[in-house]
TrEMBL record:
It is a multi-pass membrane protein. Pfam families: Cation_efflux, ZT_dimer. It comes from Chryseotalea sanaruensis. The chain crosses the membrane at residues 12-32, 44-62, 83-104, 116-134, 155-173, 179-197. Keywords: Membrane, Transmembrane, Transmembrane helix, Transport. The lineage of its organism: Bacteria, Pseudomonadati, Bacteroidota, Cytophagia, Cytophagales. Belongs to the cation diffusion facilitator (CDF) transporter (TC 2.A.4) family. It is found in: Membrane. This is Cation transporter. GO terms for biological process: intracellular zinc ion homeostasis. SUPFAM superfamilies: Cation efflux protein cytoplasmic domain-like (SSF160240), Cation efflux protein transmembrane domain-like (SSF161111).
Amino acid sequence: MQTAQQNIRIQWWVAILSITLLLIKLIAYYLTHSVSILTDALEGIVNVVAGFVGLYSLYVSAKPRDTDHPYGHGKIEFISASLEGAMIFLAGSAILFQGVMSLFNPEPLHQLDIGILLVSITGVINFIVGKVCVNNGKKNNSSALIASGKHLLSDAYSTLAIIIGLGLLYFTQWQWVDSIVAIGFSFFILYTGFSIVKSSLAGIMDEADEALLKKLVDVLEKNRKENWIDLHNVRIIKYGSTLHLDCHLTVPWYLNVHEAHKEIDILAALVRQEFGDSLELFVHSDGCLDFSCKVCEKKDCPVRKHTFEKRIEWDLHNLVSNEKHKVN
């Protein structure tokens, strides 16, 4: 809950700053009539909408689970992120259109020095806040916060390109530079929006996060215990800032319920040490079978029926399979 509240506080700052920065960009456009600055202002409008959408999604995501939502409300973060990505894509399309139009119908520009100063201020602020959002989003497993951060960073990079273009225009008086900069960065904004939508849809569809799974597999392989004869059917599902881990752990069949549960507790402590308390575990314990002896490294097993033949290295491929490991 403390993590969720931290995410909400950061998003509140994002929403408030987005309004302030939009006003600065609109003032810069009013003073200069630059289509590049207008494109930046258009994305600023998206920032305002996205900021409050992200804030609402984090508020809903922080709600405790209930009978209607037994896994919590975290999935709304993926919906929020996909909506934000779609808005970024639409903003990129509008910027592309405006850039092409201004290329053929240019307007005289004014007070470029003041305009460059104003948009520079917004770019620096967006970069700092975007980095804070992305870092905290990764730390707290928040898709909504990561999406907001990437959006702000893309805005900062587009602002940098606009500053460079306006600087070139200021010294050369080449009017077409203003339009070319807007057109060029519209493609970057379109790509950013598409990437966010693609990532969000993957989360909604519970697409396997291979990087996360590989990290988990490496931790388990390096720290596997003697009584952990086999591990399989490993799955990680993400619900907002909460990770759900499902797996089947094979232990010696003669362990009683309390002893088997102790092995699960050891595994849970190991995983939480790596991933934090935002991870929930659902571990199903299996008793070993006769063929398990050939891959079991337990040295003092009182009921061994076959000699040990081969250690099965746990990797991303064989842990996600829903089959107990055996020597072929």
